[in-house]
Amino acid sequence: MGVWKGRAGRGKPVQVDLERLPRHVAIIMDGNGRWAKRRGLPRQAGHAAGAETFRTIATFAKELGLEYLTVYAFSTENWKRPEDEVGAIMALLERYLREAIDRMARDRVKMAFFGDLSPLSPRLLELCRQTQEISKGYEGCQVNICLNYGGRDEILRGAQAFARDCLAGKADPDSLGGQRFAGYLYSAGVPDPDLIIRPSGELRLSNFLLWQAAYAELYFTELLWPDFTKQELLKALADYQRRSRRYGGV
Ligand code: IPE
Ligand code: IPE
Ligand code: MG
């Protein structure tokens, strides 16, 4: 507790007040392909390096005391990529989840998934189910992995589910408010992200948490995701702590 003063790895020391951390940090894990290209490696190698960065950052998030970390791993649009790249990403996810299950008793990180998991292979689906099941009682940071996730898709599904409840007489269109509607989203029960980080230099959300991002603070960095470090997360948190959130007020 108190203040994190100093550096995590190389770079200038940063100061982060651990009493004023954002409750929920979300990250668009982008830039794996360019990281690999710069090294003359296949894109798959970038995804493998990105998975390692994710492991480091998820563990650090728990150490720092963040309540929620949500990461964008595969979007509803990422199926457009060549089959071998999609296959490699899915294989990496499988490997990652198997290893996560092996380390679970030690790491005790609670994991959940946002997205339509139905098109995933039965093996991957089963691993998602197991990770969620084993870790559901863990305290501390909850890591949400967005898999086949799209913000628009999420909102449409929420609207459909709400419409079905109306037709079944379980809900009333006139009484729908934002809070109630949020209960129909993948993120039901999770507070909105306070801070969204996008590495790789792109200045867009790419269909990430469109509903939930309404008042999120945004942090962009040129670093590619595999080069992202604990130090960079601390920098983003320090930057967040210098901002004034007004939510439309004064
Ligand atoms: C993010 O890295 C990972 C996924 C989208 C699955 P990219 O693969 O998009 O990397 P760049 O943006 O091409 O560098
Ligand atoms: C967003 O990155 C999706 C993930 C990081 C999983 P993309 O690389 O797919 O986004 P665009 O194409 O640059 O907008
Ligand atoms: Mg990209």
Give me a quick take on this structure:
This protein is α/β, with parallel strands linked by helices and 250 residues long.
Explain what this protein looks like in three dimensions.
With 250 residues, this protein is α/β, with parallel strands linked by helices. It has 7 helices and 8 strands, in the order E-E-E-H-H-E-H-E-H-E-H-H-E-E-H. It is globular and about 60 Å long. The two termini are 30 Å apart. The model has no long low-confidence stretch (mean pLDDT 96). The chain binds 3-methylbut-3-enyl trihydrogen diphosphate (2 copies) and magnesium ion (MG).
Question: Could you give the topology of this structure?
Answer:
Elements: E1 3-6, E2 14-17, E3 24-28, H1 32-38, H2 43-64, E4 68-75, H3 83-107, E5 110-114, H4 122-135, E6 142-149, H5 151-167, H6 178-182, E7 195-198, E8 217-220, H7 230-241
Parallel strand pairs: 3-4, 3-7, 4-6, 5-6, 7-8
Antiparallel strand pairs: 1-2
Helix pairs in contact: 1-2, 2-3, 3-4
Bound molecules: 3-methylbut-3-enyl trihydrogen diphosphate (IPE) (2 copies) and magnesium ion.
- What is the residue-averaged pLDDT? 96
Radius of gyration: 19 Å
Ions, cofactors and other bound molecules: 3-methylbut-3-enyl trihydrogen diphosphate, magnesium ion
The oligomeric status of these chains comes to single chain
In helices, the fraction of residues equals 40-55%
**Into which percentage range does the β-strand content fall?**
15-25%
Judged by helices, strands and strand pairing, the structural class is alpha/beta
Distance between the termini: 30 Å
Number of strands: 8
Determine the number of helices (DSSP H or I, runs of at least 4 residues). Answer: 7
- Poorly predicted runs: none
Q: Give a quick account of the main beta sheet: strands, pairing sense, barrel closure.
A: 6 strands, parallel
How would you describe the shape? globular
Order of helices and strands: EEEHHEHEHEHHEEH
Trace the largest sheet across and list its strands: 5-6-4-3-7-8
